[in-house]
User: What shape does this take?
Amino acid sequence: MQLQEDYISKAKNIFPPTSFFLEPMVVERGEGSYIFDIQGKRYIDFSTGIAVAPVGHCHPRVVEAITEQAQKLICPSNFVLQKTKIDLVEKVIDILPNTLDSVFLCNSGTESIEGAIKLARKVRPGRPNFIAFNNGFHGRTMGALSITGSKSSYRADYFPLLPQTYFVDYPHKINTEQVLEQIERLFETTCPPTSVAAIFAESILGEGGYVIPPEDFLPRLRQLCDRWEILLVLDEIQSGFGRTGKWFACEHSETIPDIITFAKGIASGLPLGGFAANKKLMTKLNAGSHGSTFGGSPIPCAAALATIKVIEQEALIERVHFKGKKILERLQNKFGEYIDVRGKGFMIALEPKTKELDVKTILSRAYNKGVIALTCGNQNNVIRIIPPLNSPDDVLEEGISIFEQILDYEVLITSKGDRYRNKQTV
Ligand SMILES: Cc1ncc(COP(=O)(O)O)c(C=O)c1O
Assistant: This one.
């Protein structure tokens, strides 16, 4: 324990307070669906670095690909074509929605959004404005932050951001019609449609609370964009690469964006992101208009190729679709009265319907029982469960059962009053 405490106090001393840590642990190792702290204690990982490990930690095929690549080429060879990068982009185009056939690789989610913002400006010159969504999250660099509407603490003291951004509500507790009315109202009052280059939306709201939009939301947003020649940019940074039981969440409603952004899960934890569009749009990024030293480096590309192959060969998309549905149904049936259980595939959310069910307490109980999960929602009022796509059945069962035990107990307290809490341990 002392070793762990020493590391924690070192961390407090050397990191700025912006990096805060949910649980008092120091991770040293990951294997499959587990992470291990420096004391060797094992945890079921239902957080996966926020949806970053689709094929689990240190998958042998990913490790092998990284090792092989490290022996061949590590340094990105900018201005010289690089084989692994071409192989990867070809593969990514293969799995992207039809018509998205040109890709720019970068190092992170926020960078992929920056690229999409710049591409939108290039494609729609003379249209400086963007529309984005309250509770949407797109990243922390100044452009991405400008279209992020999830928490004002993310934006405080950083103004001026891009001034040409307008926000409307994501369809959570309101329907598509009401969202479109808000956009029409913007068009009538402050932001004419011919001034808008792009609308940025997450296909499923991630950080903002794992909100699954109504089925007609993306198709109708697509129609509205087409009507006014506005680009539709879908952020699949959290929801992409199989997480929702499709390669990309927009496929659930057969919506094809003009630009798609991705990162997180693609390379099993190595820094890689990108944005894709059709060739006609991408040609607007003329020579020198965008770039990145490290974007698409050989080792992340090799890791991404291996990750995608594992997802394909182990039929993980189908598995996630099937298993995710089962887990959702099971939790809905048990706790639906007290908790809004929602999700798609392995992007699962539990939002208590009553204040008495405290998300922090539930998560810290789960941690004590060896399961790590995260919060989301702008008041951190939602639990998100994001296991590796290849989590074995027994690990899923153990992790979900632990949540069930905790929720059973917490629900009991909610219905019987706090006096019950003192008499029981969980
Ligand atoms: C939907 C979405 N977009 C963008 C980002 C930013 O990605 P990154 O942290 O890699 O910059 C995130 C990160 O959580 C995200 O969930």
In short: The longest helix spans residues 393-416. The chain has two domains: 2-55+315-423, 60-313. The domain at 60-313 is CATH 3.40.640.10 (Aspartate Aminotransferase; domain 2). The mean pLDDT is 95.
